[in-house]
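Deviations from the work plan: none for this task. Representative record:
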Amino acid sequence: MANIDLSIIWAIIIAFSIIMYVLMDGFDLGLGILFPFAPDEDSRDVMMNSVAPIWDGNETWLVLGGAGLLAAFPLVYTILLPALYIGVFLMLAGLIFRGVAFEFRFKSSRHKRWWNLSFAGGSAVATFAQGCVVGAYIQGFVTEGRVYAGGALDWLTPFSVLTGFGMMAGYALLGATWLVMKSEGHINQWARRLIPGLLFGVLAIFAVVGVWTPFIDDGVRERWFGHIQIIWILPALALACAFGIYRSIKAGREVMPFLLTMGMFVFTYLGLLVSRWPYVVPPKFTLWDAASAPESQLFLLIGVLFVIPIILTYTAWSYWVFRGKVRVGEGYH
Amino acid sequence: MELDPLILSRIQFAFVVAFHAIFPVFTIGLASYVALLQGLFVATRNPLWERLSIFWTKAFAVVFGMGVVSGIVMAFQFGTNWSNFSQAASNFIGPLLSYEVVTAFFLEAGFLGVLLFGRHKVPAGLHLFAAIMVAVGTFISAFWILASNSWLHTPDGIEFRGGHVFVTSWIDAIFNPSFPYRFAHMALASFLTGGFVVCGVSAWYLVRGREVEANRKALSMTMWLLLVAAPLQAFVGDEHGLNTLEHQPTKIAAIEGNWETQSGAPLLLFAIPDRGIQGNHFEIGIPKVASLILTHDPAGTIPGLRDTPVDEQPPVWITFFSFRIMVGLGLLMIAFAIAGLLLRPRGRLYTSRLYLRGLQFMTVAPFIAVIAGWFVTETGRAPWIIYGHMTQAQGLTPSLTGGMALFTLLGYMAVYAVIFVAGIYYLTRVVDHGMEDQIDEIERPMRPLSTTHVSFDKENPTSRG
Ligand code: HDD
Ligand code: HEM
Ligand code: HEM
């Protein structure tokens, strides 16, 4: 047992739940961001219906990410949350309003506009806050001993605002490609038309962030311009996906753009991980510094390895149940 | 005066957790009730059971949704406001909360879909299975979260090394001394909550003469449940108190409002405890009864608050009054349960307007009792966050300023106020809409709250969005 590094296994599990969350909640948050621009109320109904049965489960991955961090890498949990205090609050408030809007909008006629606003606003705020978290993470945190020692708004910098907008563009792209897959007729056309613009926006921000990042931190520069050249394959693959999205949209494909957008997210995410590896609270703490006691990691690991496959099976099954296009007027509700 | 982040964080934690807690206690009770109704339907094929089950599933869906949204906030509270505590206790708290996610939340989410929307998609047996799994999920959830909470009151199975908790025995730590009592007390509290809500709503229908047959059945079976659960709760509560006397004597002293360690202590019915004078104003008590209850001996010795240094005393008056509110309501519940039994002959249970009106008011009683109970437990633990090991002040996030804490406190209050008003309004609409014409509605709803096709706006009750 002693020679298996539990911390590495846990890093993989947590990284997995985070990307699960980003991909799965990403497209439904993205739909929220696109919501105000939809051509008509019918399209909005279709947009909501296309994610209504699954969004709940999607958010559970966020809870798993949080609780898992506390269990396996408590230092990450106890430095990031205080550092992002205000941002976390904004994200939670956004998620609350958005979750409730989901449920109430359909029963409302008089207040529908408010629930529309609450859905779009909640999604946008939550996404922006998540993007800022990524930016703040790349920048690193001020710590003293093992606690956060910076101010309330350190996370809010021009750089993190840029990553915030980047996240909004990225989720919106996920949402639009999802909609291409799940809708038909004029809604499908509308979603298709959005994609080149969104793709361009994502790539532009991607480029600026890419050029900017190495200047923020020596470690990151060293990582990318040092001796491990193989990692350049990650941004290359992300770019290839972007190109593929453009091509497949032009070719009128329905499912491919969504899959490629997910691919783009995964490669970008991996690129982010290798920039900082093995630091989990940059710039000071590695994942071994941040780890909880081995007996705690092991105690939880036994259960998690057993349960996660079951969870994945169920998730796949529920997506299967709700497969196919959503039509106007024949919602799930 | 400087804003104190400690006080503000305590208020914030108490506020968000109390807000969250009112939904789970309801859903835990109701999930079991829905499973029972569904089981009765499968066994007897009597459509009345299905009607009741459909109706209560709708109410369940609304409350469950609010429980989820407010629960996501809870998952981050420990890190944002109590980061030193989280760091110290993570080796124990972390795995437990994670186990709650993987064993309970995913299970609930998994079968909830089938329960809410699968009525006509899957065979009745499978649907019943889903209902049972959701009910089981709520109990698993309560198991883990109450184990973590009980451990904060009566820590066991661990040792402190370098300011961090290390688990030496998972069994001792999870099944710590107060856990069995707290779990039993909380499970009964959930049944009482579900029970009184069902009774109150059934009574409301009966007073209006709506769906009489179904609601009589619901009222009758639930009153039997209450007749068992309410007295049992008093018994379990008493045992819980004895356990607390053993492990947290200061809390008992605060509950009793007892300052001087004494034998033959009186049971105070009323008093205004005052930490400033280390004594009570306006005491009204029954001699020797507190000793009798807690030690089963009228001359038994009851610990006094003055044994504890002043700065380690809990905020006595909150503990003291919350306890009396909880017990008072508990006794009232017993009275209602017994009155229901006495009214059964000649069916007056279903016709006595006075009694039915009373039941309607009792709908809120268990919610108040539950919150009061948590206030007893949690304020009685103050100033400790991990009893005897770490104080609340030590557990606070070091970088937290008063301004930040105030900002989020007001923020949560504003957000929850909006959500709560909308949710309650919506629930009343579900009840108002009733069960009369719901059969055709159940065909294809797919999300928690949209199982309820009641319009949100009063003017237009049939719009389906
Ligand atoms: C005795 C029961 C009980 C208590 C004391 C608590 N909870 Fe809870 N919680 C539940 C019983 C529950 C539940 C019945 O399992 C819920 C209600 C609705 C739901 O989905 O599950 C839930 C939901 C819920 C969720 C949302 C789950 C999801 O996404 O599906 C989270 C993250 C938490 N809780 C976390 C907490 C934390 C951190 C608590 C204390 C500090 C807490 N809960 C107290
Ligand atoms: C669900 C019902 C619950 C309610 C209504 C509740 C209520 C409260 C209240 C009123 C306080 C404030 C005490 C004071 O500051 O004097 C408090 C404190 C606290 N509770 Fe609970 N509690 C609940 C469950 C839990 C659970 C399940 C946990 C942990 C697993 C927990 C952990 C804490 C902690 C760490 C504190 C200390 C912080 C503070 O003093 O504010 N509580 N709670
Ligand atoms: C009728 C007699 C009752 C007695 C003697 C009683 C006793 C107690 C005691 C001594 C505690 C504090 C435990 C501790 O932390 O040391 C407690 C807590 C609590 N009570 Fe009661 N109780 C009664 C009725 C009720 C009722 C009717 C409800 C709700 C429906 C309720 C809900 C709670 C809750 C939620 C807590 C906090 C969680 C816990 O510590 O178990 N109680 N009760």
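Chain A has one domain: 6-205+283-321.
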